[in-house]
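Protocol step 4 of 6: structure prediction from sequence.
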Amino acid sequence: MTVVVNVSLAVFYSVTQVLVYRWALTAWPENAPPAIPPAAGANEDRGSLRFDPRAITLAAALAFALLLSSTDWIMLASVSAFLAIAWAVSRPDPEALSLGLALTALLAFSALIASLVAGLGIEEALSRGTRAGLLVLVATWLRAAAGPAGLRETFRRMLWRVRWVPPAREASEILDGLDSGGRLIASGRTLVDALAPVEKMPHPVAAVVRDWVAAEAAGFRAGVAAARARLTVAPRDGLLIALAVAPALTLLGHG
C-alpha cells in the first residue's frame, strides 16, 4: 500500500507540476512591473547586540548535540536553563519568536503522539516530546540571536576555510551574494497581501502567484553582494560557550 500510494502521488504531482509550469510560461506577463525592495531599516538582519554570531552558532551546536545525546530529564532541564539565560542576556531579535513557538508546539506534540503510538510509555513520550520542542527552541534562538546576516557570514567563512573543496568555494561565493532576510520577508508579505482578496480557487491563486513571481524576477539583480556582518570576538563570547557546555556535566554525574 505504501508503494502504491507513493507512486500514485508522485505521478499526480509530477503531471500537475508540468501542466502548471506550461500554463504559467505561456501566460507569463511580458512587461511585469518589478517588485520594489524595501528600504534598509535599522532592524534589518538584526541579531544579538552582545555576542558574536560565531559564538552563538557554536553554543547552539553544543546544545543540539547534548539534546541528541540523551532524553534524561536532568539534561533537558539543564539545556532549558541554558536557553532561558542565553535568550535573556543575548537580546535577540523577537521577530522569529512567534513562528518558533508555533513550530515548537507542533513538533513537540508530534513527537509525543508518535512515541505513544510506538508504545514507549508516557514518561518516555513526554521526554521525547520535550526534547523535540527544545531542539526547535534552540534553532529559534540561533536565528534570532545570530541574525540572517550573522549566520550568512559565519557559514561563508566556514566554507571559505575548506575552499580547497570545489563546491565549498562556490557555495561561499553564493552566500556572499544572498539577499537579506528582510527582503525575503517583505517579498512573502507582498504575496500574502496579493492573495487576500482573491477567490481561493486553483486558477485565480495560480495567476496571482505567477504575476508575483514575474514581478520578483523582474526586480532581481544578480551579482550584488549583500552587506557582510562584522564579527568581533569578546570575552563574553567565551562565557556563552561555557554556559552551553555546562549541561554536559549531567552526563558525568550519570557516568
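Step 5 (inspection) to follow. The radius of gyration is 22 Å.
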